[in-house]
Amino acid sequence: MKKKVVIVVFLILIGVCLYIHRRVIKALLGMGEMPKAPSWHCWVSPEKRRA
Asked: Is this model's pTM higher than 0.85 or not?
């Protein structure tokens, strides 16, 4: 039972991650333009971040 719960939680987390990054994944697959990163992404150069 514990193993099933861990697997379900893991799958939910993967789904949330895919949903959050859907525009970036779409751009990487060549179906769109790369979106600007949020302003709190400090590792991204300032010109590629949102204001």
From this structure: no
